[in-house]
Write a structure and sequence with these properties.
Low-confidence stretches: none
Bound molecules: adenosine monophosphate
Largest sheet: 9 strands, antiparallel
Strand content: 15-25%
Number of helices: 12
CATH class of the largest domain: Alpha Beta
Number of strands: 17
Helix content: 25-40%
């Protein structure tokens, strides 16, 4: 029996945000059908899917109905409960597998996986109590970041523990000071299981989006350079301007992650690039990634089409860049008058302002409610070099008259 899942088969997606929406667009283009399950209705993915199952992830009857109606199941965010994914597996292949979800949804397990594979990462300590936080602080020192083990993304569930005004002030706090720093931080994350991570004085942040096929084939999109504002991705540009040796090392490390977890699908590795050219793994996302959105316009095969090809057992597509590219996120902040995040959102931004630039492509995710920090869409521009593309998206977004 062929293990290829061919159109017009039905792809099942757990989670219904913008990643599922862009996967759905790619799937529809290739003649697949899409069923989506999440607690929401009229969701970004559901709006354009063939069928939207609006049910709690814990509603295992609904999960069973969903899984019985599809030929393969994937997920578009890693906080889907593992037990939901496992329940699907009885009826359809789950790609990437439940083991990948299990590791990626818990920062401690993720770090332990890095260590077990010999992959470089920031020093860390497991935190389960105020006492273990204190022991961790003794070992790691300050500055350090306390991160909840689960449910953290875009800087949520993170507290900087710094002995001074700036995280760059690197002094060992006195015992009394360490105790009060620890108590405040432990309070701030509401006593949840966490990891304490050494603060990395990186030079840049880069990511590598890659895919692994059912037959073990591997493809990657090179290094993408990312800048964050308030811990949320702001601008991505590719190809990143890094020495070839660094890219080779990133490929080696990324491949080790996909092979170590036996991933079938797309996975993104986020790295810190240090001044001396060393790479440290920050975290992994076992799905298409925000930094890879620019592949829609820039590459022969987008990360979303690649995800489909991988989970359907098809050959991976070319990841070649047709041109350099940059992407700027459009956050819900754009819907609020500048400097007034408390008031009611105003009308939709005037998109003609960004579209007056003929090279800018607008993507909106169909989210009904704009909130500060919420990812509502993005814009992409292509150019001869990545920095030029980044200038275009920055300028285009600035026309929306905000504080960016
Ligand atoms: P994360 O959710 O872990 O990816 O963190 C979000 C952002 O916070 C990262 O992209 C970095 O900009 C910053 N960050 C996270 N961990 C560290 C660290 N150990 N040292 C310095 N900055 C960090």
């Amino acid at each position: 029996m062929s293990n290829k899942i061919l159109p017009p088969a039905t792809i099942g997606i757990l989670g219904s945000g913008q990643l599922g929406r862009m996967l759905t667009i790619a799937a529809r283009q290739m003649g697949y059908r899409i069923h989506v399950l999440s607690p929401d209705s009229d969701s970004p993915t559901g709006q354009i899917a063939d069928k939207e199952f609006a049910a709690a992830y814990e509603d295992l009857d609904a999960v069973q109905h969903f899984a019985q109606s599809v030929d393969v199941v994937t997920y578009e965010f890693e906080n889907v409960p593992t037990q939901t994914a496992v329940a699907c597996q009885e009826f359809a292949p789950l790609r990437p597998g439940a083991n990948v979800l299990h590791v990626a949804q818990n920062r401690l397990r993720e770090k332990q996986f890095f260590v077990a594979q010999g992959l470089p990462t920031a020093p860390f300590a497991e935190v389960t109590s105020l006492e273990t936080l204190l022991t961790g602080l003794e070992k790691i020192g300050t500055p350090a970041i306390l991160k909840t083990a689960t449910s953290g993304y875009d800087g949520k569930g993170q507290v900087l523990i710094a002995n001074g005004q700036s995280p760059m002030v690197n002094r060992q706090p006195s015992i009394a000071n360490r105790q009060s720093l620890a108590a405040n931080a432990w309070e701030a994350i509401h006593h949840q299981p966490a990891i304490l991570e050494g603060f990395v004085e990186f030079e840049r942040e880069v990511s590598m989006v890659a895919a692994r096929g059912l037959d073990g084939s591997f493809a990657h999109y090179g290094q993408i350079e990312n800048s964050h504002v308030h811990h949320i991705l702001d601008i991505s540009q590719a190809p990143a301007d890094v020495p070839p040796g660094v890219t080779q090392e990133a490929v080696r490390l990324t491949r080790a992650v996909l092979e170590g977890l036996d991933v079938v699908g797309v996975l993104c590795v986020e790295f810190f690039l240090l001044g001396n050219g060393r790479l440290l793994l920050n975290e992994i996302a076992p799905r298409p990634h925000n930094s890879g959105h620019l592949t829609i316009e820039a590459c022969v095969t987008s990360q979303f089409e690649q995800q489909l090809r991988a989970i359907c057992g098809l050959p991976l597509g070319s990841t070649r860049y047709l041109r350099a590219a940059a992407m700027a996120n459009l956050l819900g902040d754009l819907w609020f008058p500048a400097n007034d995040q408390q008031s009611e959102p105003s009308n939709h931004p005037d998109w003609t302002a960004v579209l007056t630039h003929p090279h800018v492509k607008l993507h909106l995710y169909g989210k009904a409610e704009a909130r500060p920090g919420r990812k509502m869409g993005h814009i992409t521009a292509l150019a001869n070099i990545a920095t030029e593309a980044a200038t275009i998206v920055r300028e285009a977004r600035a026309k929306l008259n905000t504080e960016y």
